[in-house]
Amino acid sequence: MNVWDLFVAIVLGIVEGLTEFAPVSSTGHMILVDDMMLHSKELFPASVANSFKVVIQLGSILAVLVVFRSRFIDLLGLSRRKGTGTVRGPRLKLMQVIVGLIPAGIIGVLFEDYIDEYLFSVETVLIGLVLGGVLMIVADKLRPRTPAADTVDKITYKQALGVGLFQCLGMWPGFSRSGSTISGGVLLGMSHRAASDFTFIMAVPIMAGASLISLAKHWDAFTPEALPFFIAGFISAFVFALVSIRFFLKLIQRIKLVPFAIYRFVLAALIYIFWF
Predict the structure, then answer these.
(1) DSSP 3-state of 190
(2) Which of 53, 47, 51, 48 is nearest to 12 (CA)?
(3) Rounded Cα gap, residues 81 and 77, in angstroms
(4) For the chain, what percent of residues have pLDDT higher than 70?
(5) Where does the sequence pass through the membrane (predicted)?
């Protein structure tokens, strides 16, 4: 493991951290940075490359847990505020999160192998980037003028299920899971901030579950020689995801979704130019 390997790990971790939870497609960015600039597939065996993607995703997941730590404590019923006699308004319930996870969970179990084998290509990512951008523009144009759920605590079970259905679109590479769910939430009457909060909260169990399954499959890649590579990527993904999430939650309330859609179109054009 040399200095260049560590540089590649840090750069890819930065890309993961900055793009995983923004509605811009982390997959599209990975293609542009990895295949066009770093060519890490030529540097490392496939097992190491696959495991590395899982490791940096875990770094991003940890960042969500840090930002929303009080919310997860509350969802798990571990909040110390209970029993204090304080009157509390409606709160997001764990069952609502579970309802939101069910559609993508079912699709993932049934079609995971098909998605991995047939949908991970530059062409499908380009399609996902463009169509996802169109969805985001439509969501901003057709959203209710006054959202029914201006905070995540006012989300209904029907809205949670609807967002879960939109999340299935994110299984198409390039479509962006967060882009799909935030757009769906806005169309279903959530504020941009409420839809974003719900998206991040749902991301933890679904990404953690998928990552742990993948780790079990590629555990043999965690050799002493590869550990510095994994550690560097994990730390950079965690740090930049932490910054990205906090910044995005403030930004989305001001600029909405259309600017992100335009950015996606530009990214698609760059991938097309450099790849083809």
Answers:
(1) strand
(2) 53
(3) 10
(4) 92
(5) 51-73, 94-112, 118-139, 198-215, 227-245, 257-275
Q: Please tell me whether residue 149 adopts helix, strand or coil conformation.
A: strand
Most confident range, picked from 22-31, 44-53, 58-67: 58-67
- Identity of the amino acid at 59: G
User: Among 43, 31, 32, which Cα is nearest to 7's?
Assistant: 43
* Rounded CA Rg of the chain: 19
Number of domains, the chain: 1
CA angle 44, 45, 48 (to 5 degrees): 85
Burial of residue 136 (CB within 10 Å: 0-12, 13-18, 19+) is buried
* Paired tokens of 245: 């999430």
Q: Is 219 exposed, middle or buried (0-12, 13-18, 19+ CB in 10 A)?
A: exposed
C-alpha to C-alpha distance for 215 and 54, rounded to whole angstroms: 7
- In sequence order, the 6+-apart residues with CB closer than 8 A to the CB of 20 are 26, 57, 60, 178, 237, 241, 244
Phi, psi at 149, each rounded to 5°: -120, 95
* Counts for the chain of helices (H) and strands (E), in that order: 11, 0
* Closest of 263, 249, 269 to residue 25, by C-alpha: 263
Tokens of 240: 């930049």
Q: Please give the sequence-ordered ranges of beta strands (E in DSSP) within 114-247, or none if there are none.
A: none
Encoded tokens for 184: 């769906």
Q: What is the C-alpha separation between 202 and 243, in angstroms, rounded?
A: 19
Report pLDDT digits (tens) over 93-134. 999 999 999 999 999 889 888 887 888 888 999 999 999 999
- How far apart are the C-alpha atoms of 88 and 263, rounded to whole Å? 40
